Amino acid sequence: MEQKALACPVCQSNKAEIAGEDVKISGQFQDKAFLTTPLTVLRCTRCGYYMFFDKMAQFTTKEPSSDES
Ligand SMILES: [Zn+2]
Predict the structure, then answer these.
(1) pTM of the model
(2) How far is the CA of 32 from the centre of ligand 1 (A)?
(3) Which of 2, 18, 25, 61 could cross-link with 36 by S-S, CB 3.0 to 4.6 Å?
(4) Any idea of the CA torsion for 10, 23, 54, 63, to the nearest 10 degrees?
(5) Domain boundaries, the chain
């Protein structure tokens, strides 16, 4: 798999923590409701910006040790 270097789009920090895994986001746009595929949510530890990635994404940064919920 391709590895991506993590970089916050706001502050360019490469440090983020896992905010959630297998997160599905539901929403509505105009008249259509949608539900995303499971996402991994990372939160920038510097500015708090939330980043969403699909399960295919892998990161060069290590995840926090909370690998089991
Ligand atoms: Zn940031």
Answers:
(1) 0.65
(2) 31
(3) 25
(4) 70
(5) 3-57
